[in-house]
Amino acid sequence: MKRCTFPIRLLAVLLLAGAAHGASAQSRAPIVIKFSHVVAPDTPKGRAAERFRQLAEEMTGGRVRVEVYPNSQLYKDREELEALQLGAVQMLAPSLAKFAPLGVREFEAFDLPYIFPSKAALYRVTEGRIGRELLRRLEPKGITGLAYWDNGFKIMSANQPLLAPADFRGLRMRIQASRVLDAQMRALGAQPLALAFSDTAPALRDGVVQGTENTPSNMYTQGMHAYQRHLTVSNHGYLGYAVIVNKKFWDGLPRGLRRTLERAMQEATAYEKAIAQRTNDEALEKIRQAGSTTIHRLSAQQQAAWRRAMQPVYTQMDARIGRDVVRAIRREAEAD
């Protein structure tokens, strides 16, 4: 029996050493953050996601690796939030309207027509008490909100000029899934159809829908303008995003590392806001240069007619979104 003691002890030592080496190697492996989004890399959101990747990896000294998946490579609009909650991805930047199906309908206030008279008004809401409180309402859903990212104000497009509310009558218009946007299009006399972002350009090409609304950068990078002969710079609505993470994953990170990533997100957010308007202006100019789309700009009188036509949306959505939330946002936005 004694002759077996040494080999067994040696084997135990070797096993312990191997386990220690494996644990050490595992501890050195970077923490992977899968960041999925549905738009092209050359959009405000796409460029900011890449900027966050660079900052996060540099500022953590490689302890974190961010994998960015643009253009719905992993998930479409309707799938990505469930994937985040299940932990299949760690980070998203969905449009604000997508939180309503989770039961957080207050975010639909951002879809209300003409609710923000300027970017300054918008930032007073997103960077202030109201914005922070809205993000906190995501936590019971297993989501932590990190920042608001800006895309910009939306334009309308179709294969006919859209200058008066009557011009929308009977048109099939693509929208993202939002009860507010559905009501907006119906107020204009259009027939709204909710489609995933990645399905929009093919739907325009094939005539499934006749028009849509979006920001210039999204329209240009997806090639939507190639199938739309007319575009109206209406600035009737806002498109923004919330950068969110899986709460369990985020809370499980070491505190110091989490703070470093928060700083990286702050810098990426400042970068995103700086490039958003410029990116949309450049996209609109590229659409003009393409020569296939006539660009219209509303006069003050025409825009007033659009506002009057869409005003009933507020009354319809008060109970759904919450009258107090809508009033608080309008009060903050109109504080100029």
From TrEMBL:
Q: Which InterPro entries match?
A: DctP_fam, TRAP_DctP, TRAP_DctP_sf
Signal peptide range in chain numbering: 1-25
Residue stretches in coiled coil: none
Keywords in alphabetical order: Signal, Transport
Q: Which family does it belong to?
A: Belongs to the bacterial solute-binding protein 7 family.
- Indicate what this protein is called per its UniProt record: TRAP transporter substrate-binding protein
